[in-house]
Amino acid sequence: MPFLLRRFMFYFSAFLIAITFNFMLPRMMPGDPVEALFAASQGRMDPAQMDAVREMYGFLDGNIFEQYLAYIKSVFTLDLGPSVLMFPVSVSDVIANALPWTLFLALGSLIVSLIIGVSIGTYASYRRTGFFGQVVPPVLAFVSNFPYVVTALFLFYIFGLKLDLLPLAYTYDPSLDPGLNLAFISSVLEHAILPVGSMVLVGIASWVFNMRNAMINVLGEDYVTMAEAKGLSSYRVMSRYAGRNAILPVATAIAMAIGFSFAGSIMTEVVFNYQGLGNILLKGIVARDYPLIQAILLILVSAVLTANFVADLLYVWLDPRIASEG
After folding, report:
1. Residue of 28, 91, 205, 211 with fewest CB within 10 Å of its CB?
2. Omega into 88 within 30° of 0, i.e. cis?
3. Running DSSP on this structure, what letter comes out for residue 177?
């Protein structure tokens, strides 16, 4: 328990530091959202109304410390205020509409790349001297070195523009009404193929090499040699003996991958005009929508820290010696 308590306090402190930077970064941008709003109106709004509009949006007067305390209160009460970009819609409602699509894109690509990568890495460790182990991992490493945007644009051009096989924009066919029916679900999956595929191509190599290297280290252990001497099948040795211990470092890598998946999904959404947090964040930055920018960054920080804490819990469950040593 002391180990888990220390880890929790560490992540909570990291969260406080992160939201402090989250508070400061938008305010380091030139101007403010109200000034941008009045500039966009091209003289159709009375400058005398600026103070009233600032108060309406919740941009309080006073020193930076008072604004910071108000921001901290809004974070822990989840009262994020109205969006400047989509006023009078609240930031919470904007996030609620966009977040499910980003989660679907980020977690879907992570799960697919994890399953495929771990499977390839496990098999490549057993066939590391053969054609599969010598060729497949380097090829995947080469493909994964391209940034998310480059891979997304490549798939966009080949399968969307040239071959016209898959849709290039939106989360589903706009002519369909959302619902739990075959037509809508099929449209969602079809529109997700290119963005998810681009993220899988970028992320798969890390899982292949993590699992391959971990398995190679484990395969030299005495208990694996004993299992093989007993005549157990290669599949059982890989899954029940070597795989359980080799998955330990991969569990930690999952937490880091969640952050990269969210970042990758945000960039990929812009390429494919996918209606998630990426598009909303880009529009919010252009409009200097402080509440919206801060809310999206808060979600990203919370997701990464929570995933790391869960990875610590999983690590303790897989290897109880860690808690006793800590």
Report:
1. 28
2. yes
3. P
- Would the pLDDT of 322 be above 60? no
pLDDT range class, residue 235, cuts 50, 70, 90: low
What lies within 8 Å, CB to CB, of 278 at 6+ separation is 102, 265, 266, 267, 268, 269, 270
Residue type, 224: V
Domain ranges within the chain, ordered by starting residue? 1-77, 96-323
CATH superfamily of 96-323: MetI-like (1.10.3720.10)
Reduced to 3 states (helix: H, G, I; strand: E, B; else coil), residue 303 is: helix
pLDDT 10s digits, 63-102: 777 778 877 887 777 777 777 777 667 788 888 888 888 8
Residue with tokens 């990269």: 260
Distances (CA, A) of 241 to 224, 225, 244, 251, 293: 6, 10, 6, 17, 47
CA dist., res. 48 & res. 111, Å (int): 53
Residue 102 exposed, middle or buried by CB count within 10 Å (0-12, 13-18, 19+):
buried
Winning range, highest mean pLDDT, from 42-56, 85-99, 218-232, 249-263: 85-99
Residues 144 and 202 sit within 8 Å (Cβ to Cβ): yes
